[in-house]
Structures are given as C-alpha cells and as structure tokens.
C-alpha cells in the first residue's frame, strides 16, 4: 500500500510523539465548502502563477479575521502568504542569515526548527527559560555575547513545554531587539489554540517596530496538507520576502489553495472549526492529565493551557532517548527530551502530544507509559 500521509502508525501502537491531527479531525466538509465557493466564481485566476505577496482576497480576509482573533489590528500591508510555517522559517533563514551566523533559541525548542537551522549552517545557542518562558536578562546576555542573526521563539503554548510568555516579557524582548538591533522570529502557530484563556497579543502585533517577523500557519488551525501560512511583518520585510528568488521565480505560493481557504474564512467556517478544536483538545488535555496522574505519578509537568503538548520531567537518571525502544516494545511512543535541546541536554524529559489520538487511546497510552516506567525501576 502506498503511503499518502506523513504519520502512519501501526493500529496497535500509540505514538504520542506524533504532533499533528488525525484524519478524522480534519475539516473535509469545510474545505469542500470553500472549494465550491471558489468554483462558483468561475474565475480561473487561481490556476495561474500567483501574485508574489499572496492572493489578495485571501490576505484581506485573513487580516480581518486575525484582527478579531488577536484583538489588535492586522493590516493587509503586513501579511505575506507562505507555504506553511516551515517554508516561512526556511525563507527567513535564506534572506536574513549566512552560514556560520548565530541564532538564539529557547532551551528547549522545536526540534525540527533545529533541523532547518542546521540545513543553513547556522550556529544555534540555547537561552534559558523558566516557568514563564524566555528570561529577558538571559536573552540580553546572549545577544551581547553572540550578536545573533535573529532570535527564534515560540511565545504562545511553546513547543515542547506549552509555556506562554507573559505580555510584560514580550514587550521586554521587543525593547531589547530595538536596543541591540536584532530580529525576533516569532513562531506563533499555536496563538489561536488557547483552551482556558487567550494568550497575550502575539509578538507579531509589534511588527511595526521593524524587529519582529511573526509566523502563522493554517496547519494547526485548519489542515496541515494545505501547506499554507503567513508572515506578519513591517512592509520593508515583506518587500524583502517578495523580492526573493524563490518567489520571483514561482510567484506567490499556493494560489489555488489560497482561493479555497479564503472561502473558509469568509463563510465563518474557520472560526467555527477553531472553536471545535479548542473544545476537543481541551477535553483531551483533561483526560491525559488524569491518566498520567494515575499511571505515571513520577512525572512532573504543568498542565498545558493550549497548543498540542505535555512536557514531562522524570527523575534524574532516566534517559528517555535510550529507553524509547522499551516503550515501543510496549506499544507506546514519545519524543525524547534530547531532541529539543540545542546542546544535547534534557535526557530525563519527554514530550507527549494529545492531538493525534482520541480519549480512549490517550488513557491506554498512559497505562503503557506506567508499565514502561515500572520496568525501568531498579
């Protein structure tokens, strides 16, 4: 059988290392509605090369929708449409860094961002976090020492820790960027996935400063296969993105998908679907939290208030990377903590995602993790 999706776990295996939604949670009806709206227009423009900054009507609809969701004005002139967050980050690396440059990241950080930075030959330096996220004093010290090309941060419901940076620290980061002249690349793909309360306004709301490039994506709030996202930044940065060789050659990304998603936005289906996701993921958090307390009480964690992930700390001496094969033998998987470290630390941590599996599977995963941990005990 030919594979058509990235995640294809064995039905008997519960892999909480998968950080994406399952097929039965994806909004097929909403995408069908958006496609029908576009087809009814009888306009073939979306089948041509797209305008460099992204389909204009999508950008209008996106700016209006984000303004309501963020509670702060988002302008059409500050939006560039990308092929998802990963392509946006890769393009920013291409345009704003050179091999050998230093990039500051949170410690821990998103492990696949580390892969993108490695592809560009960048030196990654981790900056300390606490229970409120990046520590501004640690950022300032690292900036003074390393003079980075940019700081990469996930300020809302961070991957992997689920920590959210408070508004005061966000303002401090922007002030530091203005003082020292560095860029902040804010990966804000979980900004709209708060399940108990909305996070502070995104760092992208400071884009007028010229020091913040905010990245958003429909992958977490609609469907990953759309490969559609955006960059919110000051016009001078959008001009740089639009003028890249990639965009100049290929035109704006995904004009056909943009036309379909525009219909999802203008019909109100996007807002309704995000509300559905918030309710579903909120239930899954409660279920997994209760199951972990019952079956893996040795784990320390903060219950996530948004995003996709639990970040667990186990007693010192447990190497979650080395012990992953034992977990797999019991039919359960996770992401080891070392994957998220810029310096190979975090051996006793692990990340669990509740996005892919339903409540029954989450309960069973916790049972298997408890069995796994008991096997490790002396």
List the helices and strands and how they pair.
Blueprint: E1 14-15, H1 28-40, H2 56-70, E2 79-82, H3 84-96, E3 102-107, H4 111-119, E4 123-130, E5 133-134, H5 136-146, E6 150-153, H6 167-180, E7 183-187, E8 212-217, E9 229-232, H7 235-242, H8 245-250, H9 255-266, H10 269-295, E10 309-313, H11 324-329, E11 332-333, E12 335-336, E13 349-353, H12 359-376
Parallel strand pairs: 1-11, 3-4, 3-6, 6-7, 7-8
Antiparallel strand pairs: 2-9, 4-5, 8-9, 10-13, 12-13
Description of the molecule:
The chain is α/β, with parallel strands linked by helices and 378 residues long. The protein folds into 2 domains: 15-24 and 271-376, Alpha-Beta Complex (Aspartate Aminotransferase, domain 1), CATH 3.90.1150.10; 28-270, Aspartate Aminotransferase, domain 2, CATH 3.40.640. It has 12 helices and 13 strands. It has helices at residues 28-40, 56-70, 84-96, 111-119, 136-146, 167-180, 235-242, 245-250, 255-266, 269-295, 324-329, 359-376, and strands at 14-15, 79-82, 102-107, 123-130, 133-134, 150-153, 183-187, 212-217, 229-232, 309-313, 332-333, 335-336, 349-353. Strands 2-9-8-7-6-3-4-5 form an 8-stranded mixed beta sheet, with helices on both faces. Strands 10-13-12 form a 3-stranded antiparallel beta sheet, with no helix packed on it. The protein has a two-stranded parallel sheet with strand order 1-11. Helix 4 (111-119) links the parallel strand 3 (102-107) and strand 4. Helix 1 (28-40) crosses helix 9 and helix 2 packs across helix 9 (255-266). The chain is globular, with a radius of gyration of 21 Å. The relative contact order is 0.17. The model has no long low-confidence stretch (mean pLDDT 96).
């Amino acid at each position: 059988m030919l594979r058509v999706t990235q995640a294809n776990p064995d039905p008997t295996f519960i892999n909480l290392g998968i950080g994406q939604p399952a097929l039965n949670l994806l909004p097929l009806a909403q995408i069908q509605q958006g496609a029908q709206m576009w087809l009814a227009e009888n306009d073939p423009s979306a089948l041509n090369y797209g305008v460099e900054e992204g389909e204009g009507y999508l950008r209008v609809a996106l700016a209006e929708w984000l303004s309501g969701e963020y509670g702060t004005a988002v302008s059409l002139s500050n939006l560039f449409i990308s092929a998802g967050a990963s392509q946006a980050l890769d393009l920013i690396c291409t345009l704003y860094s050179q091999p050998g440059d230093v990039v500051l990241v949170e410690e821990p950080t998103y492990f696949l961002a580390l892969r993108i930075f490695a592809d560009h030959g960048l030196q990654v330096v981790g900056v300390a976090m606490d229970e409120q996220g990046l520590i501004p004093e640690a950022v300032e010290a690292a900036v003074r020492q390393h003079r980075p090309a940019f700081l990469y941060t996930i300020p809302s419901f961070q991957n992997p820790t689920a920590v959210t940076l408070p508004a005061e620290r966000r303002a401090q980061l922007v002030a530091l960027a203005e003082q020292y002249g560095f860029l902040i690349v804010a990966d804000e793909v979980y900004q709209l996935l708060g399940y108990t309360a909305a996070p502070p306004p995104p760092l992208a709301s400071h884009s007028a400063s010229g020091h913040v490039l905010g990245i958003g994506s429909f992958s977490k709030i609609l469907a990953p296969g759309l490969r559609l996202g955006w960059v919110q930044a000051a016009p001078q940065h959008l001009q740089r993105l639009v003028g890249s060789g990639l965009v100049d050659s290929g035109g704006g990304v995904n004009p056909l998908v943009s036309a379909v998603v525009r219909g999802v936005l203008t019909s109100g289906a996007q807002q309704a679907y995000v509300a559905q996701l918030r309710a579903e993921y909120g239930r899954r958090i409660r279920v997994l939290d209760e199951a972990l307390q019952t079956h893996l009480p040795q784990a320390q964690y903060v219950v996530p208030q948004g995003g996709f992930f639990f970040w667990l700390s186990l007693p010192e001496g447990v190497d979650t990377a080395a012990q992953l094969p034992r977990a797999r033998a019991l039919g359960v998987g996770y992401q080891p903590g070392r994957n998220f470290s810029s310096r190979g630390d975090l051996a006793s941590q692990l990340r669990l995602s509740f996005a892919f599996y339903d409540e029954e599977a989450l309960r069973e995963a916790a049972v298997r993790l408890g069995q796994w941990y008991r096997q490790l005990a002396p």
